[in-house]
Structure formats: C-alpha cells, structure tokens
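Design a sequence for this backbone.
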C-alpha cells in the first residue's frame, strides 16, 4: 500500500497593487520622509515638499503600493523651455526598491505631462544608480540621452560634486 503525505497548499500570494498619481498637499510629509530615508538625496525642508505637492503636482508623481506611499518623482516644466520636463528628485522607499518602481514612475510621469518633448535631470558622476535609471529610461523610450556639464563645484556655496545635465529627447 502506498501512502501519500499531504501538505497544505501554500497560501496564494498576490502581487502588490501599484498605483501612480500626482501628489497632493496631504502627501508632502511622505515625500519628505521618503527623501530623508533615501540617504542619497539633497533633502529639502518639509515645507518645500508641501509647496512642491501643491504647486507642481501636474509635473510630479507619487507611487503607492497597496495604498501606501512608496516613491515619488518631483519635476517641473522649465519656464524658458515649457516643453522641457526637469526631473528634480526620484526616490523609492527602502522596502520597495528593486521592483522597477522608479523606472515606472518616470514613464508614468511622461505620460502624465503629455506636452513634454524633452526630459532633463542633473546627476553627479558618483550616482551610478541614477545614471543607470535614466539610461534605461531613454533606451526603453527608444530615444537619445546626452550629457553636458551644468553646475561645477565652484557654483555651490558648500562642498558639492559637479552636477551634469542629462537630456533625453525626443520623448514622443
């Protein structure tokens, strides 16, 4: 006689629900917390994130995982080049890194800001994660990414590495 050992079925795991939307003033504190926890960003005051969520919601995006803030991108359209979306900060909460959320946020943001033809961002040479993120984004969009010097160390009142301007175009 053959006997079988029955083991309970593993519980079904559901994929987390990821949603994207413009931030609101109520999200300003979460933006500040995520930026602070990232430990790699130049963190602005909490007040600045509140203003950003109020005044630049159309050009920024918040990612939520199962209804909880998980990451953000802040951006604005350049006054002298209104079809240029300048990406200021990209941050993903520690517990949600490695899932491609940052890349998805960039794509969602470009779709949200449908009049943007060019994306710009600045990156220091030692920030290999951001360089890889924006390079992947440009590759996936089938577009060109260029780099040039923008702000040298001498432009900053405190010690700061030079910021290179990365320009991705055309977005569409």
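Sequence:
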């Amino acid at each position: 006689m053959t006997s079988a050992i029955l083991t309970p079925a593993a519980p079904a795991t559901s994929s987390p629900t990821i949603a994207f939307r413009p931030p609101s003033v109520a999200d300003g504190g979460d933006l500040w917390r995520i930026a602070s926890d990232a430990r790699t960003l130049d963190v602005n005051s909490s007040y600045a994130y509140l203003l950003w969520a109020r005044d630049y919601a159309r050009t920024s995006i918040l990612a939520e995982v199962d209804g909880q803030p998980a990451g953000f991108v802040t951006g604005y359209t350049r006054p002298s080049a209104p079809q240029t979306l300048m990406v200021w900060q990209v941050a993903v909460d520690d517990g949600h890194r490695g899932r491609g959320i940052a890349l998805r946020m960039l794509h969602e943001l470009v779709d949200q800001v449908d009049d943007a033809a060019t994306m710009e961002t600045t990156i220091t040479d030692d920030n290999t994660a951001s360089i890889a993120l924006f390079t992947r984004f440009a590759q996936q969009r089938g577009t060109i990414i260029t780099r040039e010097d923008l702000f040298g160390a001498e432009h900053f009142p405190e010690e700061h590495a030079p910021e290179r301007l990365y320009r991705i175009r055309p977005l569409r």
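Residues 1-12 have pLDDT under 50 and may be disordered.
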